[in-house]
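ok so heres the complex, three chains, lmk if somethin looks off
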Amino acid sequence: MARRWGVRLAEIVGVMLAVSCIVYLMLEVNADEVAVKVLGQFSTPEQRHLWLHENGYERPFLLRYLGWLWHFLWGDWGMSTHYREPVIDILPARLAHTGILACATLVVMIPASFLLGILAGMREGSLADRAISVFCILTTSVPEFASAVFLAAIFVFWLGLLPGASTMTEGFSLREIVLPVLVLALYATGYLARIVRASMVEVMTSAYVRTALMKGASPSRIVLRHALRNALIAPVTVIMLQVPWLLSGVIVTEVFFAYKGFGTLLYEAALNSDVAMIEACAMVSVVVVVATQLLSDLLYAWLNPRMRRAERPAPQGAGV
Amino acid sequence: MSRWLAALRRPTVAIGGLMVTVWILCALFANLLAPYDPLLSGDPLVLPLGRGASGAFHLLGTDLLGRDILSRLIFGARTVVIWAGLATATAYAVGIAIGLLAGFYGGVIDRALSFIANVVLSFPVLVLYILIIVTLGASGVNIVLAVTFASAPAIFRLVRALALDIRSRDFIAAAITQGEGAVHIMVMEILPNTLGPLTVDACLRLGYTSITIGVLGFLGLGLPPPTPDWGGMVNDGRAMAIAFPHLVVFPCLAISSLMLGLSLLADGLREAPARA
Amino acid sequence: MDTPATAPIIAVEHVSIALPRGADRRFAVEDVSLEVRRGEILCVVGESGSGKSVLSAALMGALPRGLRLDSGRVMLHGEEDLAHAAPRRLRSLRGREIAMIFQEPMAALNPAFPVGQQIEEMFAIHAPAMPAAERRQRSLQLLADTHLPDPARIHRAYAHQLSGGQCQRVVIAMALAMQPALLIADEPTTALDVTTQAQILRLIDELKRVHRHGILFVTHDFGVVADIADRVAVMQGGRLVEIGDAAAVLTRPRHAYTRQLLAAIPSLTPRPAGAPLSAQAAMRVERLSARYGPIRALREVNFTIPKGATLAVVGESGSGKSTLAKTIIRLTEPSGGRVMIDEQDFATLRGAALTRRRRLLQMIFQDPFGSLNPRRSVGDMLTRAGVLGGARPAEARSRAVALIERVGLKPEALARKPQAFSGGQRQRIGIARALAMLPSIVIADESVSALDVSVQQQVLALLDALQRREGLTLLFITHDLRVAAQIADLIAVMRRGEIVEFGPAAQILLHPRHPYTIELVGAAPGRAWQRPAAEEPPA
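and the predicted structre for the whole thing:
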C-alpha cells in the first residue's frame, strides 16, 4: 500500500515537472519575443538587449528554465507587466474569489445531480429516467457562454430580476453570484447526474441487490443501504476529476459576467501577453487539477473496502 | 448496414441526425442559402423580422456593422464544420495510432505514452488552448494544432482502454498463435472492434471541438475577423447584449443546437448496439 | 410452520410465464405443475433456456423485468397464493418462509459490508425487535452450523477476502437465518471447484436430513442430480417433460428428452482403448516452468505425448493447467525448461523463427463468444489461417470449404460472421480454424466447458472422430474428470503448478494412487450412479 502511494506521488512530481517545462518552453523559448512582450512593441532594440542581459536571458535554455523553476518554487513568480505588481500579490486573492464561485457551484450541483441520478437510475427505462436523461443531454449540450447568454436574456433582459454583471465593486453580493453559479451548475449537474445514473443502474442489476431483494428487504432499504454505498464510489471520484472541466467553464463564465476571479485574470493576461502572469496561472491551475486527482484517488481508496483492506489475508483453513 | 438503419429508427438518432444534417447542408450550400453577403454592411442593429432603411428584410436582424445575422450564421456553420471536422479528424488519427501501440504492446511503451497523456490532461483544456494560441497566434491551422494536442491524449486513453480489453480476448490469442504480425493484429483485429465506441465518442468530440472554436471566438482568441464565426459573433455583440439580445442569442442557439444534435446522435448510437 | 408433514410446502399449479413480445417463444415457462415437500430435495434439471431459473424466480415472486405471470398459482403451505400476493406480503415471506442460494456466491454478497453484517440483516428485516447482541450471537452460530472455520473472523471479513466455497457457506448461513420452510438453490455449485462442490452438496444434504428443509435444487448437471435428488423434474423449452422419483427417472426414463440428456452425461468410465499408442513422441515437455511475478505457476513440468494420442490435463482452478497450455504455445513466456517438437525446442524460438513454426501448435479456446473476431466472416478467418499456414490463397480457400464440412457445418457458413452461430457451432469453427494451419499438435483449453451437456458431447465426439481419423495429437485441458474420461488416452493430474499423477486414462480413473487424484475421482458428481443399461454406448 505504502509503495503504491509512493509510486503515485513520484508520478505526480514527474507530471508537475513536465508541465512546468511545457509552460516555460511555450512562453519563453524565444527570448527576443519575451522582451517584446515585457517591454512593449515600441521598445528600442537597445532597451530589450539591456533587459535580456539584466534578467539572465543569455544563459542556455535549460539553465534559464531551472532558474525560473527554482524561483517559482520559492514563491518568486515574477512581475506582472500588465498590473506592474508582483504576480504573487495579485493571484491568491483572485484564486480565493474563484474558490467561492466553485464552492457555491459544488453546493448546488452535488445534491441536485445525485438526486436526479439516483431517481433516474433506480428504475431504468421509467418515465423519470427518460425525463432526467433528456434534461441531462440538454444541459450538457449548451456551452457555458451560451447558457450565460440565455439565462441573462431571461433574468436580466426580460424579468429584470438580476444584474447582468458580477463585478462585485461594492463587496460581495449574493445577487451578483447567482447567475454565474447557475451557469456553471447547469452544465456540471447534467454531466454528473448521468454518471450517477449509470452507476446506479449497474448496481441495481447486480447480484447482491438481488440477494437483498430475496432476503425480503424493502425497496428503501435496498436503495439506501445496499445500492447507494456501492453506486456512489464512481461518481464521488468523478466529482474530483471534473475540476479541470469546471476550471475551463469558470474562465468563460467569469469573463462573461466580468467576475474578478482567477479566470478573468488569466484571460486578461493572455490578451495582454503578460508572460509571468500566464505562467503562474497555468501552473496554479495544473496544481489544482493534480491535487484534485490525488484527492480522488484517496477518496476511492477510502470508499472501496476492496482497496482499503486488500492486504489483510483471508482466514485460511478448512471449508475451502 | 441494417444495424445503422435500425439505429435511425430511434427518435434520438433521427432528431439528432436531422439537426446535424441541417447544419452540414448550411455549410455546404451557404452561398445558395444565405440571403445576403455575410460581410456586407447595411443598416446597423435592425431587429429580427425588421426591415432596414433601404427596405431590406432581415429575418434575424443585423449586427452592429449592419451585417445580416442569418447570413453570418449560415456562413458560420461552414467555419465550424470545416475547422472542427479537420481538427477532430487529426486528433483521432494521432490518438488512434498511439492508443493502439500502447494497448497492444503494453509495458514501457504504454507507460511512456500514458505519462505524456497524463501531462497534457493535467491542464484544464481551456488553459491549454489559451497557452497554445498565445504562443502560436490565432488562426485556423493553429486551432487544428491546438485541438489535436489537447484532444489526442483523451482519444488515446479511450483507444488504449478498448485495445487493452480486446487484446485480452481469445481471438487475439488465436491470431498470435497463428503467427500474425503486430501491425495486422492492431489494424485488422483490434481496430475494427473499437469502431462502435469510437463512433459515439467522435460525435461528442466533434461537438466539443465546435464548442471550443466557439469559446475561443467568444474570448476573442479565435479565427481573426471578419470570418463569420458563431463565438466571435457573441463576443462582438456582448457589449450591446442587454439592449439587443438578438445579437448574441441566435449564435448561441446555433452552437447549442449543433451540440445537442451531436449529443443525441451519440446517445442513440451508444444504445443501439446493445439492443441488436 | 406446523403444517402436517404430508402437505407440500409449496405447490406450483399450472404456471405459465409469458416472455416479452418478439422473443423466440411465447412462454418462458409453460403450464408447469410441481410441489416440494418437507425434508426432500426436488431437482429441476434442464439445459440453458429451459426455463428452470425463471421458474425458481417465480416461486419467490421476483420475475425478471419483461416477464409476467400468464396463468397458474403458486400455493405456499396450501393456503396462500404467492403468484398473486401483495408486494408487502411477499417481502415478509422472502427470507422468512422461502430463502434462496445463488449461483455466484461471491457476487451475491454486497462488497461494501462485512459478511456477518449481511447475515444479521436477515434479523433486522424479519425480527426487528431482536437485540443486537442476540443477532450477532445467532449469526455466529449460523456460520458455525455451516462448518465455517473461525466464525468470528469470517463474521467481520468482506466477501472478496473469502474463497468461493466460503462465500457459498455464508450465503447458505444467511438463507438459514429465519429457518425457512423452503430453500431454493439455483445452480449453487456450478461456479465452484469439484472438491468444493462435493462439500457444499454434503452440506445441502445435511440441511435436508437434519433440519428437514424442503429444497428446490436447480441444476444442469445430472451427476449432481444423481448424488442428491429425492425427486427429479426435467424441463425442456419451458415445459416440464418428466417428473418422478430420482431412482425411477435416472434408471427408467420415460421421456425421449430425458433419455437423451442421460445419454449425454459424461461418466467416469474410461473410453475403450483404441490402437496401441505410438512409440514416437509428438511433443516432449521437459522441466517446463513459468512465473507470475513471485508466484511459481508451473514447477518443472515433464511429460511426453505420443503421436496421435490425447493427453488430458486435469486440475482445479489455480492448478496451473491453463498456464501450462499458454506457456507451451508461447502466449506466456516460460521461465525455464524445454518443449521439444520434431527435435526442436519450441520454448526458446525467437522472432521470425517462432512466427514460422507457430503453425505447428494450434489452440481451441474456452469461450465460444470471445475466440472469434466478431467483425470477420468465417471464410475470411479460415482462409487467412490457411495462408498463414503456408498455403496459396486458392488452396487455402478450397481447404476452408473442406474443413467447414468436416466439422459438420454447411459451406454457406463461410459467408457469415460469428454472431450467426450458436456456442457449439462456434466451437466447431474454432476447431476448423485450428486445423486450417495443419498443426502437428492441437491444444484444447477447456474447450467444451461453456457448452450444454448435449452440445458438449457432440463437440467431444467431433474431436474424437478427427483424432482417430486423422491421427491428430491432442492436449486437452479440463477441470472435469468426466470429460477427460471420454476423450483421453493419457491423463495428467495437476495441482499447484505440478503434475501429481500421470498415466493411462484407465489407470488414473479406476486405480488412482495419489491422494489428491483419489479425492478428485471421489468428488466427481454422479459417480455412484450407473447409466441405464439400454443406453450404454456400443463398445
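quick notes: The CA atoms of residues 27 and 77 of chain B lie 5 Å apart. thats all i got rn
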